[in-house]
Amino acid sequence: MKPSVIFAGTPDFAAAALDAIVAAGFDVPLVLTQPDRPCGRGLKLQPSAVKKAALAHGLTVIQPSTLKTAEAQAVLQEQNADVMVVAAYGLLLPQAVLDIPRYGCLNIHASLLPRWRGAAPIQRAIEAGDQETGVCIMQMDAGLDTGAVISRHIYTINSDDTAAEVHDALMHLGANAIVADLQQITRLQPTAQSETGVTYARKLSKAEAQINWTRPATEIARKIRAFNPVPGAWTVWQDKPLKIWRAQVTSHTGTPGTVLHSNEHELIIACGCGAISIEEVQKAGSKAMPVTAFQAGNTLQQGIVLASAESNA
Questions:
Q1: Which CATH superfamily is domain 5-201 in?
Q2: How far apart are CA 91 and CA 68, in angstroms?
Q3: What is the pLDDT of residues 31-41, one digit of tens each?
Q4: Helices 163-182 and 121-128 meet at what angle, rounded to 10?
Q5: What does each C-alpha distance from 156 to 11, 98, 114, 227 come to in angstroms?
Q6: What are the beta bridge partners of residue 256?
Q7: Average pLDDT value for residue range 160-183
């Protein structure tokens, strides 16, 4: 008999898992997601991706601001569920909640634990130059991604993968993985995480996304990929932010931040070691565009030196 599943999640990454769980025939008596948030120019309240998916499936949705209250915990108790699946939910689960489901709470985490515990595992893996990442299904405990691992699923990071592309790959990997583990819920054998190799994936900030041109080209190229699509790696041009969405490492050399080559087909900027060839950019107040389109009307002349974020060294 398939277990009944309470589901808790918020963004697209979680919605894919909910869709897969429902498609596999599991009973989902309750879905938890973050409260609707203001979005867009009109700041209208928008439901999360998980709320949209749940309502499309005809599921019951609640949006508590905390799970620490007796009222919220009572609602979960009433479901008499076998297991709770959590994916990018955004709220802490107190021990009282972790203890409610018969088989505890399972988390879909987008890294190969214990590497990259925390908020931004996909971005930090790319930024650090990891050659592989993946998804772990984890038995949750009260710590920050410290629970025992039920299953590990590896993804090889391609040399041109952006965070968006790795996110989408892990989203589908995680959805398939949680369904497979739920199907054998009574036979799962979690393995405690090693305390060796623990790293923390701190939250992203716009400030750290500013490019420090004194850093090596390989490092800058990784940062550009890691911060695509959020918050976007950027530099300063004409006293305004210029986002760089895609770039490749080249063997050119020069003073860091200097435009070495500039024509209608290429834009090459020197770094601390090597250089990068820009492929896609976005100036303030405009949309992202290929460098050929940008160069047609906004040419960065050879010899211009772009501002560098020395504090990001």
A1: Formyl transferase, N-terminal domain (3.40.50.170)
A2: 10
A3: 999 999 988 77
A4: 130
A5: 23, 32, 17, 18
A6: none
A7: 98
- Considering the chain, tell me which residue range(s) the CATH 3.10.25.10 domain(s) occupy: 207-312
Q: Which amino acid is at 122?
A: I
Q: What is the 3-state secondary structure (H, E, C) of 270-286?
A: ECCECEEEEEEEEECCC
Pinpoint the residues of the chain covered by CATH 3.40.50.170. Answer: 5-201
| pTM of the complete model | 0.94
Greater confidence (175 vs 310) lies with 175
Closest C-alpha to 26, from 224, 185, 255 = 185
217-252 pLDDT per residue, tens: 999 999 999 999 999 999 999 899 999 999 999 999
CATH superfamily for domain 207-312: Formyl transferase, C-terminal domain (3.10.25.10)
User: What is the secondary structure of 190-224 as a DSSP string?
Assistant: -BPPPSSS--EEPPP-TGGGB--TTSBHHHHHHHH
What gap in Å lies between CA 12 and CA 1, rounded to an integer? 29
Token output for 106: 């399972």
